[in-house]
Amino acid sequence: MSEPNSPLPADLAARLKRDDAGLVAAVVQQHDTHEVLMVGWMDDEALHRTLTTGRVTFWSRSRREYWRKGDTSGHVQWVKSVDLDCDGDALLVRVDQVGAACHTGTRTCFDGRRLDAVVGPAA
């Protein structure tokens, strides 16, 4: 169901499957190396801003406000493409990342955080 008063085109708003807070997960990936940089959350307004400004905007669940990546850190994310997954509940945002993507100062939010896992055979 689309959100009332959504700034998105009606067909796009209708395709989004939001969580109970009205948010969709946004996986951010470096466009040329395919590194997964981070995961953030977007509501309709954040997605609208991302699609129309060339910069990635998220909804901060902890601060309860919009934040545009890089406004305070200088670590800007320039939008290269945005895709909606087949279920409508996740976005893939390909960017050109300037500087660190993670608030800890690492290139990605996944650097140095590998978990022990049994690795399956090659297909």
UniProtKB/TrEMBL annotation:
Its main location: cytoplasm. It is found in: Cytoplasm. Zn(2+) binds at residues 86, 102, 109. Pathway: Amino-acid biosynthesis; L-histidine biosynthesis; L-histidine from 5-phospho-alpha-D-ribose 1-diphosphate: step 3/9. The keyword Methyltransferase does not apply. Its cofactor is Mg(2+); Zn(2+). This is Phosphoribosyl-AMP cyclohydrolase. The lineage of its organism: Bacteria, Bacillati, Actinomycetota, Actinomycetes, Micrococcales.
